[in-house]
Amino acid sequence: MQAIITPSNVSGNIIAPASKSSMQRACAAALIRTGETLIRNPGTSNDDKAALNVIKALGAEIKNDGASLRIISKGIKPIADQVNCGESGLGIRMFAPLISLSEKTITIHGEGSLLNRPMDFFDEIFPELGIKISSNKGKLPLQITGPLQPKNITIDGSLSSQFLTGLLFAYAAQGADNVTITVNNLKSKPYVDLTLKVMENFGLQLPQNNNYESFFFSHNSNNRTSDFIDYTVEGDWSGGAFLLVAGAIAGNITVKGLDTNSTQADKAILQALVDCGSKLSVLPNEITIGKNNLKGFHFNATNCPDLFPPLVALAAFCEGTTVIEGVSRLMHKESNRGLTLQDEFGKMGVKIELQDDLMIIKETASVSGALVESRHDHRIAMACAVAGLEAKGNVIIDDAEAINKSYPAFYEDLQKLGAGVTLKE
Q: What angle is formed at CA 40 by the lines to CA 38 and CA 43, rounded to 5 degrees?
């Protein structure tokens, strides 16, 4: 599918999409506890659907009335010997430890870019936990036979915090006692905060967090309070960031549904918007942002690497040079995002330099219309679309349906704000 973005001003109110980070963690938590969970504001992205399919294959009963989900679980009792995590990096890293709680041999599949992402950390850690594993030279598919036995382990947190999330859930599900998960060089700490918050919301056994360097489990930390959980999925700061940037460069909009007290890492977009001089008003559940003369900014995205695409779209319309730290976190995303952003924004006349761990976006006299490719990366598609709102000509995005991974209604929401968006099969 192609999306054709016509230069447009945007205005009006819009509600941010549901957070897939919150939604997928809620699915995992609902699976490993026994009882019934009501999930309000459920996500509808491809990653969310993949998570629901995984927990269904692992024995959860799901009732969907459109506005909410009811999940009934008796713990992990697989009804299939294969699961598919789609293209979700969080899904594979979080659910693999949960799948390993079963004695049944289960094969984990994925799709698209997930097939090329490194999974060798499973090969290294799982045998230490009594799990039999075979992989395709460190990549999918994985074949796992449990059950996981909680032990003292040390993991590398430099690639992602998502594997730690899965281990925290799995250790809690197993009632881990007097064991510690030690983490070296942990990145994306705010996402660990989100995991711990969800664990607390669901009454799961909470570990002692020792400055994000280790997590100690004991039976005394059990937090369970109820057999019924009523959980509302947060609004998504990752998707909301694109809406906020659209307002900053192309109009005056109000984005609702974003919790300013959220632990989501991408809430940091607010700081970038302040630093570049955008016209911004922040209320507890409502953010109004408008067009202004923007200036280059310096931002550290090491703990929030998903912000790189909207930040590049923002920087393209700033006077002066913008520097973003954390490029090393971009290599193993849906695409190698550092190079992809350099290439695709380069087609629109935006000069981007990559120096070690820095991305440097030079001041651009004008952003040109161009034919660009999403590289099957949802965030690249959205970043190019937002830049197209203020470009000097149409921006045409090939493989535009990549947005379905995280924000299926993105183009529709831009249209609601008055943007010129035409979709062609």
A: 115
Nearest to 316 by CA among 374, 375, 386, 381: 386
Q: What is the pLDDT of residues 45-60, one digit of tens each?
A: 999 999 999 999 999 9
CA distance 184 to 192: 14
Of 47, 306, 377, 413, the catalytic one is 306
The answer, as to whether pTM is greater than 0.85, is yes
- Domain 2-17+235-424 in this protein, CATH class: alpha beta
Residue type, 168: L
For the stretch 65-96, pLDDT in tens is 888 999 999 999 999 999 999 999 999 999 99
Amino acid at 51: A
Contacts of 178 (CB under 8 A, 6+ apart): 217, 218
Locate the domains of the chain by residue range: 2-17+235-424, 20-232
Half-sphere exposure of 97 (CA within 13 A, CB side): 26
Specify the CATH architecture of the domain 20-232: Alpha-beta prism (3.65)
Does the annotation mark 413 as catalytic? no
Helices (H), 180-225: 189-201
In this chain, the answer to whether the domains covering 2-17+235-424 and 20-232 adopt an identical fold is yes
